[in-house]
Amino acid sequence: MKIAIEVNGETRSVDCSPWKRLLDVLREDMRLTGTKEGCGEGECGACSVMLDGEVVNSCLVAAGQCSGRKVTTVEGLAHGETLHAVQRALITCGGAQCGICTPGIAVCAAYVVDRGLLRDRDEQSARAAVRELLAGNICRCTGYQLIVDAVIEAAREVGR
Amino acid sequence: MTEYVRPRDLDEALATRAAHPDWMVLAGGTDLMVNATHQQVPAGILDLWRLPSLGDIATNDRGVTIGAGATWYEIENHAAIVEGWLPLALAAREIGALQIQARATLGGNVGTSSPVGDSLPVLLALDAELELASVRGRRRVKYSEFCTGYRKTQLAPDELIVSATLPHTQAHTTWRKVGTRRAQSISKVMGAAAIELDGGVVRTARVALGAVADRPIRITAVEDAVRGLAPAKAAEAARAALRTAIKPIDDVRSNAAYRREVAENLVARFFSGILS
To answer: What CATH number should be reported for the domain holding residue B69?
Structure first.
């Protein structure tokens, strides 16, 4: 089946089974290998991308379902050489170690910050909200503290 | 090669379903696509994701009618549901995490009818009625009659789930889930209740639990035992009645003894919690 998907602002076509996972379309057909496979069962969030503006696990989305829809991967978060605020904050706060969860964390955190989901919250409630909103992204290295720091920092930087 | 149809409207979806009853009916994929690369490839996919009108949520004379395509994210953030049917919003908020809630649908939870489907005890306790459709017509069936066994339902091969309607209620309603962690965990035990008091004693109660049987179930022994009792007494009666009413199992997520103890605590708290 011919499938056209707008990926990171550019319409790209693939010819594949509609049952193929979006994750594999991105990594194999489009060579966008920033998106990682962790568990393959929707538990870990490593494969998180935005689909029509929502954060989803790309291992649980069938390629056919993406036809005519918009996908943003970790490669699409930056504007040219300028990293997204959450990417900068993950670096400055040290919110990454081995790195396999990091693209998914960056995508989910960008959604949280860009949607203004932390707006009008005090520090304590914002930190609790980050922990709940990122609960679907599992990290086995950092202990989460520095990731939470990074999301709070990014939200502060962009005024949200 | 897998066929694929994304219908424009419900009529086209029903016609496709009737023509291809063996095809996978797919919406958010959060259940059906787990380990997709290790699954048998479906002959075809009937894609209901974002089918127009299937995701609508509206209040009406009967209660709130929630389209089968509504996601848990939409349900937990819907003001009328939070106001009038809070247990469903609370359950929605603990189904997976953000990524799952953005894709998983009411219709998916109902269609699979797993014993650990988190919304299902809510549908039982709040007495939800489903609307099913096929090219032959439409029918309504209570969720309590819809699920007939382990992941078995009375959905016909040519039918689709259109919506669930939860009636207006003045009852005290609650929902509680116990899992390994707050988010992204499959329940060890969860349940919901709708309790009506009259003059300080229980007039009627609907109590439902998940993960304690082959399907989500109403616990009628508890419902009968608490009638006419004040909440504190009802809590103890509920605990005692539950003891012989369920036969939970040992599996990878928990064991029978723990499930039994947690289930007893949950049903007791459904009643004692009314006091606070």
So the answer is: 3.30.465.10
Question: What does the alpha-carbon distance between residue B82 and residue B66 come to, in Å, rounded to a whole number?
Answer: 13
Which has the higher per-residue pLDDT, B156 or B276? B156
Q: What ipTM was predicted for this assembly?
A: 0.96
Q: What is the DSSP letter of A29?
A: I
Q: pTM for the complete prediction? A: 0.95
- Please determine, looking at this structure, whether the domain spanning A85-157 carries the CATH number 1.10.150.120: yes
Query: Rounded CA gap, B38 and A65, in Å?
Result: 19
Show residues of chain B in contact with A108, CB under 8 Å: 98-99
User: Where along chain A do the CATH 3.10.20.30 domains lie?
Assistant: 2-76
Q: What residues in B contact A19, CB-CB < 8 Å?
A: 2, 36, 41-42, 45
- In this predicted structure, the answer to whether residue A134 has a pLDDT above a threshold of 90 is yes
For B108-149, write each residue's pLDDT tens digit. Answer: 999 999 998 999 999 999 999 999 999 999 999 999 999 999
Task: Provide the β-strand partners of residue B3.
Answer: B44
pLDDT 10s digits, B202-244 = 999 999 999 999 999 999 999 999 999 999 999 999 999 999 9
Residue B215 in contact with residue B147, Cβ under 8 Å? Answer: yes
Structure tokens at B225: 């035992």
Q: Quick one: pLDDT band at residue B180, thresholds 50, 70, 90?
A: confident
Question: Radius of gyration over alpha carbons of chain A, in Å?
Answer: 15
Task: Give alpha helix (H) positions in B219-255.
Answer: 220-225, 231-243
Which of A120, A41, A2 has its CA nearest to residue B100? A41
- Residue B33 to residue A132, Cβ atoms within 8 A: no
State the Cα–Cα distance between residues A5 and A117, nearest whole angstrom. 27
Contacts of B37 in chain A (CB under 8 A): 21, 24, 40
Measured between CA atoms, how close is B159 to chain A, in angstroms?
21
